[in-house]
């Protein structure tokens, strides 16, 4: 499946019904999700691999990984309503994804059972709560060997310092991220921001 075909399939997915600002529930745009996943697939990190999507929301990255031939895909999110939509999205695409309602910081989850080859994620940027992405980075490094994450522009120096001794940054790709009006405090219908797709390898 080429990049455009993947993007077109992902464009069909449902987004959040009632997004929560506290959880920074912005829908990952299909072009961004497709680019991350296609790039990871070209590097051998998706097809035939066990993939985990942390903070999966409505499942666009998880479903896309399944479309690209991952051997097993798990999506984890704290919001049961988002997981319900994610399951509907997977069913609509005809793919199999194991979706779990859980807080990625919870010690009560058997995280060892979710060990995988590749983690994909679009963690909170920290607009509502500073350093909200840190628990996602920590859990990703615990679970996977390769991590592909979407971060706010300019995050790579922080990420490099935060993961020092645990992982290395192998690649940073700048990507346009169209942010549509989602919450009451948004004044414009759409704002185009730039994000960094960062590829990490656990040491």
Automatic annotation (TrEMBL):
Keywords assigned by UniProt, alphabetized: Methyltransferase, Transferase
Origin species: Methanoculleus bourgensis (strain ATCC 43281 / DSM 3045 / OCM 15 / MS2) (Methanogenium bourgense)
One record GO biological process: methylation
GO function terms (MF aspect): methyltransferase activity; nucleic acid binding
InterPro entries reported for this sequence: DNA_methylase_N6_adenine_CS, rRNA_MeTrfase/Polyamine_Synth, SAM-dependent_MTases_sf
Superkingdom in the source lineage: Archaea
Enzyme class label: transferase
CDD domains: AdoMet_MTases (cd02440)
Annotated protein name in UniProt: Methylase
Matching PROSITE patterns: N6_MTASE
EC id: 2.1.1.-
Sections of the chain in a coiled coil: none
